[in-house]
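Why should sequence recovery work at all? Because a backbone constrains its sequence more than one might expect. Tight turns favour small or flexible residues, buried strands favour hydrophobic ones, and helices have their own preferences. The token representation captures these environments compactly. In the example below, the structure is given first.
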């Protein structure tokens, strides 16, 4: 599975929702990162990920 892109927005979200890992390490594991983002993230954090992560119910998630 490929990593999520490292941008200022994704790094900011990663720092806040996966506080116990380095942001780059969190983004390298997208399933783990997204589980934490959806559990602990705010609406603003999820909006920041819009366009980076696409949910397609027929094909799971695309990055």
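From this structural description, the recovered sequence reads:
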């Amino acid at each position: 599975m490929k990593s999520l892109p490292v941008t200022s927005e994704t790094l900011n979200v990663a720092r806040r929702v996966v506080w116990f890992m380095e942001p780059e390490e969190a983004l390298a594991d997208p399933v783990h990162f997204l589980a934490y983002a959806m559990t602990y993230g705010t609406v603003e954090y999820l909006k920041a990920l819009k366009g980076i992560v696409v949910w397609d119910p027929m094909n799971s998630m695309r990055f």
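A few observations help interpret the result. The first strand starts at residue 54 and ends at 56.
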